[in-house]
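agent> Task received from the user: take the single chain below, predict its 3D structure, and emit structure tokens. No templates, no multimer pairing.
agent> Plan: (1) validate residues, (2) run structure prediction, (3) serialize to tokens, (4) report one or two observations.
agent> Step 1 OK, no nonstandard residues flagged.
tool_call: predict_structure(input=
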Amino acid sequence: MRWLIPFVQATGYRIIIENPKSHEQIVIDQNTKELPPLTLEWMQKYNRQELLEWMAQKKEKEEARKIKEARGRSRFGDTFKIEE
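)
tool_result: status=success, residues=84
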């Protein structure tokens, strides 16, 4: 990755490295002197709001599945299973 800075300085391009989990960006342009470290912690960061929304959706789906299964068992007996 050491070639990125000379490439950007020679071409005038602007490179953006985005972390899709946290929506943070590292911008490399002509004024960049050294690369910021792409650490494992940075790549594993997440957007807290998206994680909470995902957890809520998963919980809702699980509750809906349990309700369906309970209704099916009351109607068809204990051997009823929902196929996913």
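agent> Step 4: summary for the user.
The CA atoms of residues 71 and 80 lie 9 Å apart.
agent> Done.
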